[in-house]
Amino acid sequence: MTTRPVVLGxxxxxxxxxxxxxxxxxxAPPAPTTSTTTTTTAASTGPLVSIxxxxxxxxxxxxxxxxxxxxxxxxxxxxxxxxxxxxxxAEGLKxxxxxxxxxxxxxxxxxxxxxxxxxxxxxxxxxNADTRMKGEFYPTLAKDRLFPDGYxxxxxxxxxxSTMDLTLVAVPPPPQAQFRAGDGxxxxxxxxxxxxxxxxxxxxxxxxxxxxxAHTANPAIAQPAQANRALLKSLMDKHGFTxxxxxxxxxxxxxxxxxxxxxxxxxx
Length: 268
Known about the structure:
- This protein is α+β, with helices and mostly antiparallel strands.
- It has 5 helices and 10 strands; from the N terminus they run E-E-E-H-E-E-H-E-H-H-E-H-E-E-E.
Protein backbone atom coordinates (compact mmCIF):
# COMPACT_ATOMS: atom_id res chain seq x y z
CA MET A 1 0.00 0.00 0.00
CA THR A 2 1.23 3.49 -0.73
CA THR A 3 0.54 7.15 -0.33
CA ARG A 4 0.84 9.79 -3.04
CA PRO A 5 0.06 13.50 -3.49
CA VAL A 6 -3.71 13.86 -3.91
CA VAL A 7 -5.15 14.55 -7.37
CA LEU A 8 -8.74 14.60 -8.56
CA GLY A 9 -9.96 11.90 -10.87
CA UNK A 10 -12.84 9.68 -11.92
CA UNK A 11 -13.95 6.28 -10.65
CA UNK A 12 -15.73 3.76 -12.88
CA UNK A 13 -18.33 1.90 -10.79
CA UNK A 14 -21.13 -0.04 -12.48
CA UNK A 15 -20.63 2.02 -15.63
CA UNK A 16 -20.93 5.40 -13.81
CA UNK A 17 -18.03 7.85 -13.58
CA UNK A 18 -17.77 9.42 -10.11
CA UNK A 19 -15.40 12.14 -8.91
CA UNK A 20 -12.66 10.79 -6.64
CA UNK A 21 -9.05 11.33 -5.55
CA UNK A 22 -5.81 9.35 -5.64
CA UNK A 23 -2.21 9.58 -4.58
CA UNK A 24 -0.06 8.50 -7.59
CA UNK A 25 3.75 8.32 -7.45
CA UNK A 26 5.54 11.47 -8.58
CA UNK A 27 5.40 13.15 -10.99
CA ALA A 28 1.67 13.63 -10.36
CA PRO A 29 -0.58 13.72 -13.43
CA PRO A 30 -2.12 17.09 -14.35
CA ALA A 31 -5.50 18.04 -12.97
CA PRO A 32 -8.23 16.22 -14.95
CA THR A 33 -10.57 17.83 -17.38
CA THR A 34 -12.86 15.16 -18.85
CA SER A 35 -12.67 11.39 -18.95
CA THR A 36 -12.81 9.45 -22.19
CA THR A 37 -12.10 5.97 -20.82
CA THR A 38 -13.99 2.96 -22.08
CA THR A 39 -16.82 1.66 -19.92
CA THR A 40 -16.06 -1.88 -18.74
CA THR A 41 -18.45 -4.63 -17.72
CA ALA A 42 -18.15 -7.77 -15.63
CA ALA A 43 -18.14 -9.83 -18.85
CA SER A 44 -15.13 -8.09 -20.40
CA THR A 45 -11.65 -6.94 -19.46
CA GLY A 46 -12.32 -3.73 -21.41
CA PRO A 47 -9.08 -1.74 -21.72
CA LEU A 48 -7.06 -4.38 -19.82
CA VAL A 49 -5.20 -7.49 -20.98
CA SER A 50 -3.83 -10.51 -19.13
CA ILE A 51 -0.04 -10.42 -18.84
CA UNK A 52 0.08 -14.16 -19.55
CA UNK A 53 -1.59 -13.55 -22.93
CA UNK A 54 1.18 -11.05 -23.72
CA UNK A 55 4.11 -13.02 -22.24
CA UNK A 56 3.28 -16.40 -20.66
CA UNK A 57 6.81 -16.70 -19.27
CA UNK A 58 6.09 -14.00 -16.66
CA UNK A 59 5.12 -15.65 -13.38
CA UNK A 60 1.92 -14.64 -11.59
CA UNK A 61 1.33 -15.02 -7.86
CA UNK A 62 -1.69 -12.83 -7.15
CA UNK A 63 -1.34 -12.43 -3.39
CA UNK A 64 -4.73 -10.78 -2.96
CA UNK A 65 -6.41 -13.81 -4.53
CA UNK A 66 -5.06 -15.75 -1.52
CA UNK A 67 -5.13 -15.25 2.23
CA UNK A 68 -1.36 -14.66 2.34
CA UNK A 69 -1.49 -10.88 2.54
CA UNK A 70 -1.58 -8.21 5.22
CA UNK A 71 -5.37 -8.61 5.66
CA UNK A 72 -5.25 -12.41 5.99
CA UNK A 73 -8.08 -13.26 3.59
CA UNK A 74 -8.89 -13.14 -0.11
CA UNK A 75 -9.57 -9.54 -1.11
CA UNK A 76 -12.87 -8.51 -2.67
CA UNK A 77 -12.69 -8.29 -6.46
CA UNK A 78 -9.95 -10.91 -6.92
CA UNK A 79 -11.64 -13.91 -8.55
CA UNK A 80 -8.64 -15.47 -10.34
CA UNK A 81 -4.86 -15.76 -10.11
CA UNK A 82 -4.40 -13.23 -12.91
CA UNK A 83 -2.50 -10.05 -13.67
CA UNK A 84 -4.51 -7.57 -15.74
CA UNK A 85 -2.82 -4.46 -17.15
CA UNK A 86 -3.26 -1.87 -19.86
CA UNK A 87 -1.71 -3.15 -23.12
CA UNK A 88 0.99 -0.48 -22.91
CA UNK A 89 2.07 -1.62 -19.43
CA ALA A 90 1.95 -5.29 -20.43
CA GLU A 91 4.18 -4.66 -23.46
CA GLY A 92 6.63 -2.83 -21.23
CA LEU A 93 6.89 -5.82 -18.91
CA LYS A 94 7.41 -8.07 -21.93
CA UNK A 95 10.45 -5.99 -22.88
CA UNK A 96 11.84 -6.20 -19.35
CA UNK A 97 11.35 -9.97 -19.35
CA UNK A 98 13.30 -10.27 -22.61
CA UNK A 99 16.29 -8.60 -20.96
CA UNK A 100 16.07 -10.85 -17.91
CA UNK A 101 16.04 -14.15 -19.82
CA UNK A 102 19.78 -14.11 -20.70
CA UNK A 103 20.46 -13.57 -16.99
CA UNK A 104 18.41 -16.69 -16.08
CA UNK A 105 15.90 -14.49 -14.29
CA UNK A 106 12.17 -13.88 -14.64
CA UNK A 107 9.64 -11.36 -13.45
CA UNK A 108 7.01 -12.47 -10.97
CA UNK A 109 4.02 -10.20 -10.40
CA UNK A 110 2.24 -10.05 -7.04
CA UNK A 111 -0.42 -7.51 -8.01
CA UNK A 112 -1.36 -5.56 -11.12
CA UNK A 113 -4.72 -3.91 -11.80
CA UNK A 114 -6.61 -3.61 -8.50
CA UNK A 115 -10.39 -3.08 -8.50
CA UNK A 116 -11.67 -0.13 -6.48
CA UNK A 117 -13.75 -2.59 -4.43
CA UNK A 118 -10.48 -4.19 -3.29
CA UNK A 119 -9.18 -0.80 -2.16
CA UNK A 120 -12.43 -0.32 -0.27
CA UNK A 121 -11.81 -3.70 1.41
CA UNK A 122 -8.39 -2.46 2.56
CA UNK A 123 -9.92 0.71 3.97
CA UNK A 124 -12.57 -1.21 5.95
CA UNK A 125 -9.90 -3.54 7.32
CA UNK A 126 -7.64 -0.64 8.34
CA UNK A 127 -10.46 0.69 10.53
CA ASN A 128 -11.19 -2.59 12.36
CA ALA A 129 -9.35 -4.41 15.14
CA ASP A 130 -8.08 -7.40 13.11
CA THR A 131 -4.28 -7.77 13.46
CA ARG A 132 -3.90 -11.46 12.62
CA MET A 133 -1.13 -10.80 10.04
CA LYS A 134 0.77 -8.15 12.01
CA GLY A 135 3.66 -10.51 12.83
CA GLU A 136 4.67 -10.75 9.17
CA PHE A 137 3.59 -7.58 7.39
CA TYR A 138 3.75 -4.76 9.97
CA PRO A 139 5.52 -6.19 13.04
CA THR A 140 6.84 -2.87 14.37
CA LEU A 141 3.94 -0.63 13.33
CA ALA A 142 0.72 -0.03 15.26
CA LYS A 143 -2.28 -0.66 13.03
CA ASP A 144 -3.76 2.74 13.90
CA ARG A 145 -0.75 4.31 12.12
CA LEU A 146 -1.58 2.75 8.74
CA PHE A 147 -3.67 5.72 7.58
CA PRO A 148 -1.57 8.54 9.11
CA ASP A 149 1.67 7.00 7.82
CA GLY A 150 0.25 6.52 4.34
CA TYR A 151 0.29 2.71 4.04
CA UNK A 152 -3.48 2.64 3.41
CA UNK A 153 -5.30 5.18 1.22
CA UNK A 154 -8.80 5.41 -0.24
CA UNK A 155 -7.54 5.45 -3.84
CA UNK A 156 -4.76 3.44 -5.50
CA UNK A 157 -2.86 3.96 -8.74
CA UNK A 158 -3.25 0.19 -9.27
CA UNK A 159 -6.90 0.83 -10.13
CA UNK A 160 -5.83 2.76 -13.23
CA UNK A 161 -4.36 -0.44 -14.74
CA SER A 162 -0.74 0.61 -15.32
CA THR A 163 0.77 -0.01 -11.88
CA MET A 164 2.15 -3.34 -10.73
CA ASP A 165 3.98 -4.98 -7.82
CA LEU A 166 6.69 -7.43 -8.85
CA THR A 167 9.99 -9.13 -8.08
CA LEU A 168 12.73 -11.25 -9.66
CA VAL A 169 12.85 -15.05 -9.62
CA ALA A 170 15.66 -17.34 -10.75
CA VAL A 171 15.05 -19.57 -13.80
CA PRO A 172 14.12 -22.36 -13.43
CA PRO A 173 11.97 -21.10 -10.54
CA PRO A 174 12.62 -22.65 -7.12
CA PRO A 175 9.62 -24.31 -5.44
CA GLN A 176 7.13 -21.85 -3.96
CA ALA A 177 6.07 -22.50 -0.36
CA GLN A 178 2.34 -22.53 0.29
CA PHE A 179 0.99 -20.37 3.11
CA ARG A 180 -1.53 -22.01 5.44
CA ALA A 181 -3.71 -19.98 7.79
CA GLY A 182 -2.50 -20.57 11.33
CA ASP A 183 1.16 -20.97 10.34
CA GLY A 184 3.60 -19.12 12.54
CA UNK A 185 4.42 -15.68 11.16
CA UNK A 186 7.95 -14.34 10.69
CA UNK A 187 8.68 -10.65 10.23
CA UNK A 188 8.99 -9.48 6.62
CA UNK A 189 12.21 -7.75 7.69
CA UNK A 190 13.91 -10.96 8.87
CA UNK A 191 16.80 -12.44 6.85
CA UNK A 192 15.63 -14.32 3.76
CA UNK A 193 16.44 -17.74 5.24
CA UNK A 194 14.06 -17.05 8.13
CA UNK A 195 11.10 -15.24 6.60
CA UNK A 196 8.32 -16.82 4.49
CA UNK A 197 9.89 -18.91 1.72
CA UNK A 198 9.00 -16.81 -1.32
CA UNK A 199 10.82 -18.15 -4.38
CA UNK A 200 11.97 -14.62 -5.25
CA UNK A 201 15.64 -13.75 -5.18
CA UNK A 202 16.60 -11.87 -2.01
CA UNK A 203 15.15 -8.36 -2.16
CA UNK A 204 15.90 -7.48 1.46
CA UNK A 205 12.32 -7.74 2.76
CA UNK A 206 9.21 -9.67 1.94
CA UNK A 207 6.47 -8.24 -0.30
CA UNK A 208 4.04 -5.67 1.19
CA UNK A 209 6.38 -5.06 4.11
CA UNK A 210 5.21 -1.95 5.99
CA UNK A 211 8.68 -0.91 7.10
CA UNK A 212 11.43 1.53 6.12
CA UNK A 213 13.61 -1.41 5.12
CA ALA A 214 11.28 -1.78 2.12
CA HIS A 215 12.33 1.65 0.82
CA THR A 216 14.08 0.90 -2.46
CA ALA A 217 17.36 2.69 -1.72
CA ASN A 218 17.57 1.96 2.02
CA PRO A 219 21.33 1.59 2.70
CA ALA A 220 20.69 -0.81 5.58
CA ILE A 221 19.84 -3.55 3.07
CA ALA A 222 22.80 -5.87 2.55
CA GLN A 223 24.19 -7.28 -0.67
CA PRO A 224 23.04 -9.03 -2.81
CA ALA A 225 19.58 -7.59 -2.08
CA GLN A 226 20.75 -4.07 -2.96
CA ALA A 227 22.05 -5.34 -6.31
CA ASN A 228 18.79 -7.20 -6.99
CA ARG A 229 16.72 -4.09 -6.26
CA ALA A 230 19.02 -1.99 -8.45
CA LEU A 231 18.75 -4.45 -11.35
CA LEU A 232 14.95 -4.51 -11.19
CA LYS A 233 14.71 -0.74 -10.91
CA SER A 234 17.16 -0.07 -13.77
CA LEU A 235 15.43 -2.41 -16.22
CA MET A 236 11.98 -1.17 -15.31
CA ASP A 237 13.14 2.43 -15.69
CA LYS A 238 14.72 1.63 -19.08
CA HIS A 239 11.40 0.34 -20.37
CA GLY A 240 9.21 3.18 -19.16
CA PHE A 241 8.35 2.52 -15.51
CA THR A 242 8.90 4.67 -12.42
CA UNK A 243 9.55 3.09 -9.03
CA UNK A 244 7.78 4.31 -5.89
CA UNK A 245 10.73 4.98 -3.58
CA UNK A 246 9.05 3.59 -0.45
CA UNK A 247 8.34 0.16 -2.00
CA UNK A 248 10.99 -1.74 -3.95
CA UNK A 249 8.27 -3.81 -5.69
CA UNK A 250 5.99 -0.97 -6.91
CA UNK A 251 6.21 0.52 -10.43
CA UNK A 252 3.96 2.69 -12.60
CA UNK A 253 4.11 3.17 -16.37
CA UNK A 254 5.15 6.69 -17.33
CA UNK A 255 2.55 8.27 -19.57
CA UNK A 256 -0.08 5.76 -18.43
CA UNK A 257 -3.15 5.78 -20.72
CA UNK A 258 -5.80 6.26 -18.00
CA UNK A 259 -4.24 8.64 -15.45
CA UNK A 260 -7.59 9.96 -14.23
CA UNK A 261 -9.80 6.84 -14.17
CA UNK A 262 -10.12 4.21 -11.43
CA UNK A 263 -11.73 0.99 -12.66
CA UNK A 264 -13.83 -1.41 -10.60
CA UNK A 265 -13.98 -4.46 -12.86
CA UNK A 266 -13.33 -7.72 -10.94
CA UNK A 267 -10.15 -9.65 -11.75
CA UNK A 268 -11.54 -12.70 -13.57
